[in-house]
Amino acid sequence: MAADMRLPTIRKPVSLSGSAFDRRDLVVPGDIITSDTGFMRGHGTYVDEEKLTASVAGEVQRVDKLICVRPLKTRFNGEVGDVVVGRITEVQQKRWKVETNSRLDSVLLLSSVNLPGGELRRRSAEDELTMREYLQEGDLISAEVQSVFSDGALSLHYPQFEVWKGQGVLVQLSPSLIKRQKTHFHNLPCGASIILGNNGFVWLYPTPEQQEEEAGGFYTSLEVKDILKPEVMEEIVMLTQQKLLEQEG
């Protein structure tokens, strides 16, 4: 029986013209990006026989003479200011370890956490002993990247002392699908809230009912209190005058 055999076809090089980059060319490992030696190789590329070749599957990006390939699926590489959703994995001395879908566990220092009630003071040994009462293993938090260590680990800042437990759904996506936005916290009209983490973690939970005394801020009240009524004010003035006369006498 005759077998139909085909030789491997020559891969088509990726054009580096402006129109090609408008299409956002996608490549797979081994695809030849260009044979022009005037370009510099970036992340996701290597040189093979004087040809710039893709080493990962992703989107070809060009900045001046630098060419790199942005992987379609990769671990989260955080930057300062990114909003992340993470889960506490370990409680250590003066710090928590947080899983944020990055290569290394992120670090949340005790000094980077606002204490309940917004109290501003130095952290004491008592606070260190009660760390597990604030956050413990399995708690889900939303934090902000404060800095990046030399090894790539992220240092987090926890501005709001809120812990979402129990009800809710955590969805893990590719970090490349979450774009940096002005706000990552959204309240949906259906009674649910969503947090879009730059690290690919999306948290859906019921919108909490905020009490007036817990909402914070201030408001103007035009309601007349009992102490501001005219008869009460007159009585206060009379008592004050009487006290002054007694002191003079």
From TrEMBL:
GO biological process: CUT catabolic process; exonucleolytic trimming to generate mature 3'-end of 5.8S rRNA from tricistronic rRNA transcript (SSU-rRNA, 5.8S rRNA, LSU-rRNA); nuclear polyadenylation-dependent rRNA catabolic process; poly(A)-dependent snoRNA 3'-end processing; TRAMP-dependent tRNA surveillance pathway; U4 snRNA 3'-end processing
Residue ranges occupied by any Exosome complex component N-terminal domain in the UniProt entry: 26-63
PANTHER family: EXOSOME COMPLEX COMPONENT RRP4, PNAS-3 RELATED
Taxonomic source organism: Collichthys lucidus (Big head croaker)
RRP4 S1 domain boundaries: 75-147
Pfam families noted in UniProt: ECR1_N, KH_6, S1_RRP4
Family: Belongs to the RRP4 family.
GO MF annotation, one: RNA binding
Subcellular location: Cytoplasm; Nucleus, Nucleolus
Subunit structure: Component of the RNA exosome core complex (Exo-9), composed of EXOSC1, EXOSC2, EXOSC3, EXOSC4, EXOSC5, EXOSC6, EXOSC7, EXOSC8 and EXOSC9; within the complex interacts with EXOSC4 and EXOSC7. The catalytically inactive RNA exosome core complex (Exo-9) associates with the catalytic subunit EXOSC10/RRP6. Exo-9 may associate with DIS3 to form the nucleolar exosome complex, or DIS3L to form the cytoplasmic exosome complex. Exo-9 is formed by a hexameric base ring consisting of the heterodimers EXOSC4-EXOSC9, EXOSC5-EXOSC8 and EXOSC6-EXOSC7, and a cap ring consisting of EXOSC1, EXOSC2 and EXOSC3.
A GO-annotated cellular component: nucleolus
Principal location listed in the UniProt entry: cytoplasm
UniProt keyword Electron transport present: no
Protein name according to UniProt: Exosome complex component RRP4
Domain K Homology: 168-209
Keywords annotated in UniProt: Cytoplasm, Exosome, Nucleus, Phosphoprotein, RNA-binding, rRNA processing
